[in-house]
Write a structure and sequence with these properties.
The protein is mainly α. The protein is about 65% helix and about 5% strand.
């Protein structure tokens, strides 16, 4: 069974980077994407994100299911933006170029399309970074790296467990779904969309209860091993920052500074091609 968003050991320069380096890149990259609506900056970020995604050798089977869910959410978000704020683009860019009238106050304008185009790009600049971070970062090494730079090992260990828990939850979900299908509850594409949503909801409570049991087991195991007794601890998977780590961190910081300068040079974070 293919694991979704789980770490896989591969020999790429991204895998060889420290977990802290990838975390810094991920946080600064996401922050830059959130702050800017400059289309030029977002397109450059999208280009780099796709390159990073390709170089990390992330396979579609690892992210395909999650990507489909994100796409559904993205389409819903774009529709909701237009439904509740059909003139948001006009208000931002100060002009109104009507392409066609729909009904009532709903006009399809070039400005609104451009605004929602930027929203879509913002998602696609972040999604590859999220996937890259999750599937190329060893949870144990990541926790050790965080502790090395001064972050409490309790925080690092909590994040490590969370990253490890993703494939475990997926496996438990699959087991429960197979058990439900064996009882005659149809969850495949043969059933209608509404029926699949209704039937899938029957998995939630068993999944919650099994997760609670797993949490109890992990908590007892940590307590038996004396976790938290000392303020410091040693790490088996500790990795030092190397030259490539410093280069990536430096590039990310520099890119963020340049991107924000380009974004706010005219006093607005929106690039306006209509003036």
């Amino acid at each position: 069974m293919a694991k979704i968003l789980s770490y896989e050991e591969k020999d790429t320069w991204i895998h060889r980077l420290s977990g802290v380096t990838k975390l810094i890149f991920f946080l600064l990259w996401c922050l830059t994407s959130m702050l800017t609506y400059d289309t030029r900056v977002l397109l450059v970020m999208l280009f780099f994100s796709l390159i990073v995604f390709k170089v990390s050798q992330t396979q579609w089977r690892q992210v395909g299911a999650v990507f489909k869910v994100i796409m559904v959410f993205l389409l819903f978000n774009v529709f909701a933006i237009y439904l509740f704020s059909p003139n948001q683009g006009t208000a931002i860019y100060g002009t109104k170029t009507v392409l066609f009238h729909i009904a009532g106050r709903y006009d399809m304008t070039l400005e609104q399309l451009f605004y929602e185009f930027n929203v879509v790009i913002k998602y696609f600049t972040i999604i590859p970074a999220v996937f890259m971070f999750l599937v190329t970062t060893n949870p144990s090494e990541f926790a050790a790296s965080m502790n090395k730079i001064g972050i409490s090992y309790n925080v690092g260990y909590a994040i490590s467990i969370a990253l490890r828990y993703i494939p475990d939850v997926q496996g438990e979900f699959t087991k429960i779904r197979n058990a439900q299908e064996a009882r005659g509850i149809e969850m495949s594409g043969k059933a209608s969309f509404i029926s699949r949503i209704k039937n899938t909801s029957s998995i939630i409570f068993p999944l919650i209860f099994s997760s609670m049991d797993r949490i109890d087991v992990v908590s007892n195991a940590m307590e038996l091993r004396g976790y938290g007794k000392h303020k410091k601890r040693t790490w088996y998977m500790e990795r030092k920052l190397m030259r490539n780590d410093y280069l990536v961190i430096g590039f990310t910081v520099l890119f963020m500074v340049v991107a924000l300068i380009v974004t706010f040079v005219d006093g607005s974070r929106f690039y306006n091609p209509f003036v």
